[in-house]
Design a protein that fits this description.
alpha/beta; 5-stranded antiparallel sheet
């Protein structure tokens, strides 16, 4: 048993089973043994690879979409350029490089990196040099427009799971079987925040609910509705949560989420409808597959321009990266993009109004 498993086991023995959300929080964020607290998990030698680590084109195109929206908003002379969960800082670095030529954009931007991991904050600081930025574990906003990006951030936030039982629900929890962690179910109860899910579920169906995700979406939505700006949210998930998407990844392979606590990445698919509803009164765009979004922003033309300077293995790897980001059988369909923006404004380039 590793030290974090020992802590979790003692806690359950003392106070009873944990919700999945509590378990995710401890495994990912424990101050001493948490997954994100103790390592840089990205890249081929780590546990997973993200879009900005696959190709510079991802950050470049997202950056140009944000900068276009900033120009259309009348080029506000001060604004917060925020990223949630910036990993190695690659997306923000590519965004800043791609927008160098947009007159006034950099001098107006106050860069805010929202990161809980000390290890990754240090990597981000290196990646952004010589740009100035502020780091915080919270989205600390001042009264100016907000231009925000988040790639694979919301999937790392804790979810609770509920199984429908008649017109009520049981919560899936983590308890003990002997000395080992095991899934269990609570007694039947009525959860007011799940009432609307009685319309589209049947007995035995699982739904997921992420209160921390909704709180952050609400903060972003209220801020944008009041002060202007846009948020581009990219993640794997769908319009509405259905089924068990709680998973653990170690060295690019799925593993049991209950084994070796704190050593694997724990995630759940993002429920974009819940984010859109929480972000009201800000408007939300149509949920759009990543591949479609990147094609609309011109990834093929950008890929061709970069390809003309490459040959051999570098060219092959560049072609594979383009395919990986956009192809429906790779990240193109599983990953989705949704923007939050002021009601009445135009959605950012690459996205249409939501219904
Ligand atoms: C899956 S990684 C994505 C990294 C990066 N966006 C990318 O695309 O490469 C999740 C990121 O969110 C950060 N993170 C996770 N939970 C967080 C929280 N509650 N508050 C702030 N950052 C968090 C992690 O430390 C990491 O930087």
């Amino acid at each position: 048993m590793n030290p974090l498993e020992a802590i979790i086991t003692r806690q359950i023995a003392a106070t009873g089973p944990l919700t999945l959300a509590d378990y995710m929080s401890i495994c990912l964020q424990h101050a001493e043994h948490g997954y994100y607290t103790t390592r840089d998990p990205l890249g081929t030698a780590g546990d997973f690879t993200t879009a900005p680590e696959i190709s510079q084109m991802f950050g470049e195109l997202l950056g140009l979409s944000l900068a276009q929206t900033w120009l259309e908003a009348g080029s506000p002379e001060r604004f917060t350029l925020a990223e949630l969960g910036p990993g190695r800082g690659t997306l923000m670095a590519d965004l800043l490089r791609a927008t160098r030529g947009v007159a006034g954009f950099h001098s107006a931007a106050e860069v805010l990196m929202v990161e809980s991991s000390p290890v990754l904050s240090a990597r981000q600081q290196e990646a952004l040099l010589p740009h100035r930025a502020t780091w915080s574990s919270q989205l600390d906003l001042t009264g100016q427009p907000l231009f925000l990006i988040a790639n694979e951030f919301f999937d790392a936030l804790p979810v609770r799971q509920f199984i429908r039982d008649g017109d009520n629900w049981r919560e899936r929890v983590i308890g003990l079987e002997g000395d080992s962690l095991a899934f269990g179910l609570t007694e039947v109860s009525d959860y007011s925040f799940l009432t609307h899910r009685l319309a589209d579920t049947q007995d035995g169906d699982i739904v997921e609910h992420s209160a921390p995700s909704q709180a952050i979406a609400a903060q972003i939505g209220q801020h944008i509705a009041r002060h202007g700006g846009v948020a581009l949210l990219v993640d794997y998930g769908d319009w509405r949560s259905k089924g068990d998407t709680f998973q653990a990844l170690k060295a690019h392979e799925k593993v049991s989420p209950l084994h070796n606590a704190g050593a694997a990445d724990l995630t759940a698919h993002v429920d974009f409808e819940a984010l859109a509803l929480a972000a009201s009164p800000a408007a939300s765009s149509a949920l759009t597959p990543q591949g479609v979004f990147l094609e609309r922003l011109g990834i093929t033309q950008r890929a061709q321009a970069l390809a003309s300077k490459l040959s051999g293995a570098a060219l092959e790897s560049h072609i594979a990266a383009h395919r990986r980001l956009t192809h429906p059988e790779e990240m193109g369909t599983l990953f989705k993009v949704m923007a939050l923006y002021q009601s009445g404004a135009t959605p950012p380039a690459g996205l249409n109004h939501g219904t």
